[in-house]
Design goal:
Shape: globular
CATH topology of the largest domain: Rossmann fold
Number of domains: 4
CATH superfamily of the largest domain: P-loop containing nucleotide triphosphate hydrolases
CATH class of the largest domain: Alpha Beta
Number of helices: 22
Helix content: 40-55%
Strand order of the largest sheet: 4-6-7-8-5-9
CATH architecture of the largest domain: 3-Layer(aba) Sandwich
Largest sheet: 6 strands, parallel
Number of strands: 9
Structural class: alpha/beta
């Protein structure tokens, strides 16, 4: 009874609050008691209880009332910690699957369907093993700009398959969506728009879709190419007076996959051609998959009508991998070369190279290669000497990153955050932002004070010390702060 009621309440919440709030504040929500007069809901942290009580109690009451129980009053209580952590994604909770499903539905902006359930199952695992379709034809565009083989466009990398893709929290949605599309092109999410920083695996996912489609249907017309190649093919078709042939090829593909679509910027004629190509494929229910180094709305000088179409399906971000995912990637890359790295070496490489999978692979190659050439065992000392000469980039956190994270997480505006309000709903996020600015940037106390309306440096110091003290006394609050810090360091923000 309680579990069914909780599921219904969460479904109502999913339509009333933003995904960040649903994931952060309601993951440990449970129904403790329900009678004719009251519904007692509990969470595992006094901090979460107090925050929800002040900011979301009305929303919870609306959710219960919407279930046809207008006389029931919502009571919010705190239960002792029982292994459920309301502020950490990795920990299981009674309704984690339900919340994850609601979050995916919010992102997909489509109603639940059998295909959505398929993606939910895919997102719950570490990746499904699919046979690698080696030996696929790999023709390049012909001189006229029109590919001639059924496996059209650029060559596929035989290693870029789903079974060789390491799945983690940073890419789970993108991976699950790509997997669903590979199994049912044109039926799941159309278009799929994958975005993220350089070297995070976007091309791997796109090519894995192509491999899977061709494995299931070798006769499928699959066209994979970069945006630059599409542009060049279009220009060549104009010069050779073969536009009809160009359009016939690209507008009759079963699956069109375009990598680095941000290069459409400042190319008005190519944008117009791609617009009509997109419409033709979409109307024919053919699959379109696009990738970019930024979200659709951030691509400069691209027509609004194209940006709108990019957002019709599912927009999935591939973020910088977290530490555990990087360790798994290091092991996978080494295993691909027949080497099992010592645990301390794998963890060292994952710690030192934090933002780019290609650089991480380069570090593995260098360590394995030098060990083979010098006939030395792979040790931590050897790894340290190899990395010492490599340009290792650390994640850069900017003021805008922190302000964007806080306004999104706590559902307040930038004006409220930097304004004069002293209410708890604003003052606590403001203090957290000040603390993060001091921890993750080189901003002085005076610099932080200027960001928040020319406040005195003593005000900033008080805020920073208050957050430090609270993290020492409140375990759940510390988990919240650690989570915010990890999101800053692993999301791969562009500087």
């Amino acid at each position: 009874m309680e579990r069914s009621l909780l599921r219904s309440i969460l479904q109502q919440l999913g339509a009333r609050v933003r995904r960040e709030q649903l994931e952060t504040w309601f993951r440990s929500l449970d129904v403790r008691r329900a009678d004719e007069r009251e519904v007692e809901l509990s969470v595992t942290s006094t901090f979460v209880r107090d925050w929800v009580q002040k900011n979301y109690l009305g929303v919870l009451q609306e959710a219960v009332t919407a279930l046809g129980e207008p006389r029931r009053r919502v009571v919010l209580t705190h239960r002792e910690e029982d292994g459920w952590d309301s502020l950490r994604f990795a920990q299981p909770t009674p309704m984690s699957d339900e919340i994850d499903r609601l979050l995916r539905q919010r992102d997909e902006r489509v109603p639940a369907s059998p295909m959505a359930n398929q993606v939910a199952q895919a997102a719950g695992g570490a990746g499904q093993a699919l046979p690698s379709p080696f030996g696929m034809p790999s023709s390049l565009p012909a001189a006229t700009g029109v590919p001639t083989s059924r496996r059209l466009g650029n060559a596929l990398n035989p290693n870029y398959t789903f079974d060789r893709f390491v799945v983690g929290p940073c890419n789970r949605l993108a991976h699950a969506s790509a997997l669903a599309i590979g199994e049912n092109p044109g039926c799941a999410y159309n278009p799929l728009f994958v975005h993220g920083n350089v070297g995070l695996g976007k091309s791997h996912l796109l090519q894995a879709i192509c491999h899977t489609v061709l494995r299931r249907d070798p006769k499928a017309r699959v066209l994979y190419l970069s945006c630059e190649d599409f542009t060049n093919a279009f220009i060549q078709a104009i010069q050779s007076h073969s536009l009809d042939q160009f359009r016939e090829t690209y507008r009759t593909a079963d699956v069109l996959v375009i990598d680095d679509v941000q290069f459409l910027a400042n190319k008005d004629k190519t944008q117009d051609e791609f617009f009509h190509t997109f419409n033709a494929l979409y109307d024919a229910q053919k699959q379109i998959v696009l990738s970019s180094d930024r979200p659709p709305v951030e691509i400069p000088t691209v027509e609004e009508r194209l940006v709108s179409r990019f957002k019709w399906g599912l927009v999935a971000e591939v973020e910088a991998p977290c530490f555990d995912t990087r360790v798994a990637i290091v092991r996978r890359k080494a295993a691909g070369r027949g080497i099992e790295l010592p645990e301390e070496v794998a963890r060292f490489l994952a710690e030192r190279v934090a933002t780019n999978i290609r650089e991480l692979e380069g570090a593995v190659i260098k360590v394995v290669g030098i060990a083979a050439i010098t006939e030395q065992p792979i040790t931590l000392a050897l790894a340290e000497s190899c990395i010492r000469g490599m340009p290792v980039r650390q994640t850069q956190v900017s003021t805008d990153d922190i302000m964007t994270l806080i306004t999104s997480e706590f559902a307040i505006t930038a004006r409220e955050l930097t304004g004069k309000s002293r209410t708890q709903t604003v003052s606590l996020p403001r203090q957290i932002a000040m603390y993060l600015l001091r921890e993750h940037t080189e901003s002085s106390l005076e610099d932080v004070g200027r960001i928040f309306g020319n406040r005195d440096h003593t005000t900033v110091l008080y805020a920073v010390n208050k957050i430090k003290e609270r993290t020492q006394k409140d375990k759940m609050f510390k988990e919240l702060m650690d989570g915010l810090g990890n999101r800053l360091l692993t999301r791969g923000f562009r500087s």
